[in-house]
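Form 12-C: Joint structure prediction
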Amino acid sequence: MLTIQVNGVAQTVDAPEDKPLLWVLRENLKLTGSKYGCGQALCGACTVHIDGQPTRSCVLPVGAIGNKAVRTVEDIRNEHIGSLVQNAWRELNVPQCGYCQSGQIMAATALLKSNSAPSDQDIDRAMSGNICRCGTYPRIRKAIHKIASEQL
Amino acid sequence: MITAHFTKPHALFICAARVMLLALLSSTAMAQSPLFQPLYEVLTHPRCLNCHTKTEFPRQGDERRRHDQLVVRGADNHGAPTLQCAACHQDENVADDAVPGAPHWGLAPLSMAWEDLNASKLCIALKDLSKNGNRSLSDLLRHMSEDELVLWGWSPGANRTTPPLSQSEFVDALTRWVNAGGPC
Ligand code: FES
Ligand code: FES
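Section 2 - Result
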């Protein structure tokens, strides 16, 4: 049995230490917002925040988390910038199929928290690990700029 | 007769060119000190060199291609502020070794960039306190024989190749070099 802090709640789960956090979230805790794309840290669909840092939950052994705070897309609206990102995503219809978008939202939220006026290059550097097979990159970029210029 | 007349200087010329070429090759690849040569061959192996780059990004694979996902070096050598090396690289190899990992995974600072350095230049840079993190020879020995990220080079997982010397052979060679005063 392991206890981890997820979205502000201490959760005790019956999982081996080397089980990837993604599967603890999806199977043990039924938090299915974080997606499985590749399982090899290649696509970013599984991105969650660990103490605020975007992290690939598909390769993070749950036993390595310790007391660090896990935040998933289910809870991101409770952060000011997270809610701005979700609203802009809705307003600009950013998602196409949507599969990559919880990861995109987690990455964009972290970017805007650390940089309130990101340049195109800052966006590229922060988001290049989040792959979108529908190619929504121009809308993602537009939404990030919109939040930065109008709301931060 | 005419042919012979021209052949001789021609052969001499080729011979001289060969000597020059060998001298050139040895000045780029061979250390002057035989004690440093085996170290040079380890330090320039892709497992070491891919993160001791002079570029704004790490490399990967034995072909030393630019790291996938276009990850960048970042101000602290650990990636962009919100796309850090540790977003994917854990303290150990994970995902059946698909994702390599070791503690404090990251690039070496640019002052420790070894790409394109010949053996003597690399040797001098390695000992230069202003470039090497202020490490004495014995600090270098400790760092290169104990640091977990350095040691990862010999347990990279999957089918990744390892440096030409084993880890213990490397430490032996390093010790000999340090004990001799670090000759280049
Ligand atoms: S599922 Fe984790 S990066 Fe693709
Ligand atoms: S919206 Fe379909 S993969 Fe990104």
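Section 3 - Comments
Helices of chain B lie at 2-29, 37-43, 46-49, 119-127, 137-146, 148-152, 167-179. The first helix of chain B runs from residue 2 to 29.
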